[in-house]
Specification:
Rossmann fold; 14% helix
C-alpha cells in the first residue's frame, strides 16, 4: 500500500475511488486517514494540514501521521509540498524531487526516536540526505 501526504491546497485527491475516512489511534494522537484506490493502487491519503486546513505547520502531528500510515499498511510514502524553494532556477509549477530540506517551523516534534531529532528553525542545518533512494529512482524513471 502507498501512503500519500499532501500539503497546502491539496485536500482532495482527484481520482480516488471507494474512499473511506477512518480515525486511527496512535501513541502520538488520533489521525484522520482516507483509505481508497487511486489509479488501481491501494492508497492511504493524508492531508497534513487537515481536510479543512485547520492545522498550522508547527502543530502538524508528524509522528502520529507516520505511525498511522505504517499501521495502515503503507510501505512507501510520497509527500507533496507547495512551499517556496531557494533555487531561482525552478519555475512555478515545476515538479522537483528533493533529497534534503530546511525546516523553518518551530515547536514541531519530528521523530519517534529522540536521538534522531535535530534542531529546527532559523540557522538550522539541512537534514541529512534521504535514505530511501529507491523511491526517488522509481519516481524519476516513471
Amino acid at each position: 500500500m502507498l501512503g500519500l501526504i499532501t500539503g497546502s491546497g491539496f485536500y482532495d485527491l482527484p481520482g480516488l475511488e471507494d474512499a473511506v475516512d477512518r480515525q486511527v489511534e496512535t501513541p502520538y494522537g488520533v489521525v484522520s486517514l482516507v483509505y481508497a484506490t487511486w489509479n488501481g493502487c491501494p492508497v492511504v491519503f493524508l492531508p497534513r494540514h487537515g481536510a479543512d486546513h485547520s492545522v498550522p505547520p508547527q502543530r502538524i502531528p508528524y509522528r502520529a501521521n507516520l505511525w498511522a500510515l505504517h499501521q495502515a499498511g503503507a510501505r512507501a510514502v510520497f509527500a507533496t509540498a507547495v512551499s517556496g524553494g531557494i533555487n531561482p532556477g525552478y519555475r512555478n509549477g515545476e515538479l522537483v524531487l528533493i533529497d534534503q530540506f530546511i525546516n523553518l517551523t518551530r515547536g514541531s516534534i519530528w521523530s519517534t526516536v529522540a536521538r534522531m531529532c535535530v534542531p529546527t528553525g532559523p540557522g538550522s542545518r539541512p537534514r541529512p540526505r534521504s535514505r530511501c533512494t529507491q523511491a526517488s529512482v522509481a519516481t524519476l524513471s516513471a
